[in-house]
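Late entry, written up from scratch paper. The run itself happened at the end of the previous shift, but nothing got recorded in the book at the time, so transcribing now.
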Amino acid sequence: MELQQLQYFLVAAQYEHITKAANSLHIAQPALSQSIKRLEAELGVKLFDRKKGGISLSASGKLLVEELKPIMQSLDSLPKKLQDTAKKRHQTIHLNVLAASILVTNCIIAYKEKHPEVNFEFVQSQSATDYDLCITATLPRRNPAANQNLLEENFFLAVPSDSKYAGYESIELKEVAGEGFIFMADTRPIRSICDQFCIEAGFTPDIVFESMNFEAVRSLISAGLGVGFWPEYSWESAGRSNKMVLLPITSPECKRDIIITYNKEFSDSPVVEDFYKFLMDYAMECKEQHQQARLQKN
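Output as recorded:
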């Protein structure tokens, strides 16, 4: 049973006249008659009752028409669905965000205001390979040359506002070696980076709480349950909490490189290229705004 046979059958059923149906299909009348006969032979039923001056659908023919209608409608709409899917795929940017999630999310919001037709798929997986862009972080000067630095970011030490450290202008990390630390969970690059800061300061941190999001870190530190690291740009300002103070760390150097990998083996789309450039510009604007805010504060 072929698709063309079914299409010919439906046209014959519409006209209930072989000659008129053949003319509509731009084929010879015998070709249409033979096609219908082959279909009837394959199905083992009569689809038409022959009568003088034309044909009429049999009971089996009427049932076949009803069964075929939704199938043929679906087939007719299939090219557009495929084109729409391809267009959506072309306008979907796949992101693997392992660092700076707040900065990236805010960038997406800003980009969508200018390009509402673009869609985003957002994952956070160390093992993912099916992405257009990956945003992650490393210790300074340790990122592969093939990657592009998004920005260099300092870390502050976040302490409760009622702690003995709150009045400090800055701090050496070794001064809090005996304190309990509140860290991000060890599934994120930020965790290994912060572990390394403590190792370079000469101690292993006493981790009293771990969390998957920075809001929980903020809340736990504000509640006086420990101290923690706070990245300068990529998390929202700690200013919303008057129960936490951010101290510059003078020793060791507590920085990271936020880097972006453009996975051209997965996709080489103009839409991805445009967002890539937008993200780079957005990150620099964010850095400049933070620097201006610090200058005004000082």
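The chain has a mean pLDDT of 85.
(Scratch paper discarded after transcription.)
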